[in-house]
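User: I want to check something. If I give you two sequences, will you return the structure for each one separately, not as a complex?

Assistant: Yes, each is folded on its own. Here is the first sequence with its structure:
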Amino acid sequence: HSYSTIAWAASAHKGVIENVDYGYKATTTPGKVFGFFNALGDVAFAYAGHNVVLEIQATIPSTPEKPSKGPMWRGVIVAYIVVALCYFPVGLIGYWMFGNTVEDNILVTLEKPKWLIAMANMFVVIHVIGSYQIYAMPVFDMIETVMVKKLNFKPTTMLRFIVRNIYVAFTMFIAITFPFFGGLLGFFGGFAFAPTTYFLPCIMWLAIYKPRRFSLSWCCNYVCIALGLCLMILSPIGGLRSIILNAKDYDFYS
């Protein structure tokens, strides 16, 4: 929340730039369409997180009298409110001040004061250090399960140390090689997070509760499935196009 507050407060303090343009950044119809697809992926990434919900809920004490779904539901509601309070001011105020010249990372657009931008980036690092562990935990668990059950490795501390460090090194290599923030968010938001957030839970709910066909809940879930499937297909296309366009003029490892 700290670096989000710095971003929108500094933008508001800087004021609306001269000759601000609120139109599309792209000038062609395909550019506008694919940019829209990429933006959908960005939003999906921002409100993703259901891939770690079960991991978090598993740590909450649960009894038949006090099931964990109660506190978990309240926690999810609070989490979404906090996310909205962090992201919406940045998006609205940032676009109001800079228009379509705003960068994927608004801190780059601000430029000054450098000490404040450095502080915001420090808060980002602190946030990522904690959140990375949570988001990567299901991946760690999956890799270690395959290594032990399929490849017959012994479940030792050394195996866990090596596997996790290799995964972290791999993700760091990808981040350094393709530092295209907006494109990557759009791609992974649609490809990785849309299924676990927007339509797989609906499929699971339908399979478990089997509501009456064409009832309100049945229709709502199928609408969510259709929208989530479209999001999973279209957003990575927009994100991949953005990455390709940015890579044309980018000097890798410069």
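And separately, the second sequence with its own structure:
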Amino acid sequence: MDRKVVEQYRLALFGRMVMGVSHEVDNHLSVVLGFAELLQVLGPGEKKALESAGKILSSGEKIAAIIKQFSHYVRPHTPVAEPFTLSAVLSEIVLFSRYDLGRGNVTLVMPGQDAAVRMRGDSRDFALALLAVLLNGVEAMAGRGGKLTVGNARREGSWQVTVADEGPGIPPAVLPRIFEEGFTTKPDPLHSGMGLPVARHIVSGMGGDITTENPPAGGCLVTLRVPAG
């Protein structure tokens, strides 16, 4: 897969997620405007005025952080292999996926996320791969909701990151084609069929692999195996 394809998918995915990011910004902006209005009716020396100013500053900093994170991940770049932690990547991509999770009535469960889970590769690319897998799980539970569980385990010098959904699972006829570029079962033009192929390309480039299966208990389980950092 050409690097250009990865960057095209990155732009398409984050372009789709602008709605969610704008929702997060709007929440904090409402706080800024609300407390700014309150300041207009308070005296400059009042305790509530100082508290309001603090709320405005805090929300303003959060807005700046959201925009900075979004710009960091959406910007095309040349991959650089270096150590990074899974917890750091998760904390940031959860921000981008929160809107889709809420809209799909999906609860993200992340038991036992350890800051010691260190990997080696390009953190922005791995975030893109993991985000593609997460959103695939959200879409699998469309109309029904459920839990999307992210776990990790150490296996022979590598970390296994698992994403399990509570959807209907992948039909047997579809399973062999799941990583085929452009393959999709969804008619919606927003679904290009490139999410899992791009994820596999990224993980393979890190010296790992990615697999999917339908567990006996139901749903779909995606496993990303990445060398420890």
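Because they were folded independently, the notes below concern the second chain alone. The chain has two domains: 3-74, 82-227. Helices lie at 3-16, 18-41, 47-74, 86-103, 123-140, 195-205.
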